[in-house]
Amino acid sequence: MAAPRPALTRSELAGALHAQAARYWDKHPFHVRLHAGGCGPGEIRSWVANRWYYQRHLSQKNAAIIAACPHPEIRLRWLDRIAFQDDGGLADWLALGDAVGLSEEEILDERHVLRGTRFAVDAYVAFCRTRPWLEGAAAALTELFSPRHMADRVQAWRAHYDWIKPDGMAYFDNRIPVVRSDSSFTLDIVLTYARTREEQEASVAALAYKCDVLNAILDAVDYSGGLPS
């Protein structure tokens, strides 16, 4: 019988997780075009409407992680994510919709949500419900890469899309400092509780999977060509 492979050190595992930045959706052609000022109003509205479907499922996937997590101190801290989203985050996203010219009704009834977005987001929630809690936590580590990307988005939108109402940026302005704190906490969880090589590799794979989920959403939005302007 072959000897079990040695576990990675904390620094090696951290490096493997950070390396998944190469798969993050900031490199997707749609986001590259969006940040360069190359998207029309219909494309931006489609992105906002489809991202709503992701936003409104975040509390459900976070609740699934908490339900499976055996550590009370982690459950208590993870609850902050649900509180952020349900006590302001979703309202801020609706304000973003208004800022780009979407009515609250058309966001809430999800008439613009594409099937590719539904498949990707529903699969992500199912992943967090059925996989070990640590893999669900590791999948959330896209937050390692998101603060800079969100800051770049706000700057790009203000520079290139002056038709978007400024108060629509509240979600990003509020989320950036929170996600910086969350990412440090989540990274420490994974580095601490992924003790075997198998757990470590599953955690890296979970983060890679989450990057694929985000890119699948953009594939759908990009292929659709956006909403009528």
UniProtKB/TrEMBL annotation:
Give, as in the UniProt entry, the pathway in which the protein acts: Cofactor biosynthesis; thiamine diphosphate biosynthesis; Cofactor biosynthesis; pyrroloquinoline quinone biosynthesis
Q: Which reaction(s) does its UniProt entry say it catalyses?
A: 6-(2-amino-2-carboxyethyl)-7,8-dioxo-1,2,3,4,7,8-hexahydroquinoline-2,4-dicarboxylate + 3 O2 = pyrroloquinoline quinone + 2 H2O2 + 2 H2O + H(+)
Q: Which residues form a coiled coil?
A: none
Q: Which family does it belong to?
A: Belongs to the PqqC family.
Gene encoding it? pqqC
Put simply, this protein is called: Pyrroloquinoline-quinone synthase
Domain of life, per UniProt, equals Bacteria
Instruction: List the Pfam families.
Output: TENA_THI-4
Q: What does this protein do?
A: Ring cyclization and eight-electron oxidation of 3a-(2-amino-2-carboxyethyl)-4,5-dioxo-4,5,6,7,8,9-hexahydroquinoline-7,9-dicarboxylic-acid to PQQ.
**A single GO molecular function term of this UniProt record:** pyrroloquinoline-quinone synthase activity
Family annotation (InterPro entries): Haem_Oase-like_multi-hlx (IPR016084), PqqC (IPR011845), PqqC-like (IPR039068), Thiaminase-2/PQQC (IPR004305)
Record domain Thiaminase-2/PQQC: where: 19-219
Q: Which residues form the signal peptide?
A: none
The protein's organism comes out as Paractinoplanes globisporus
List its EC numbers: 1.3.3.11
Write out the entry's keywords from A to Z.
Oxidoreductase, PQQ biosynthesis
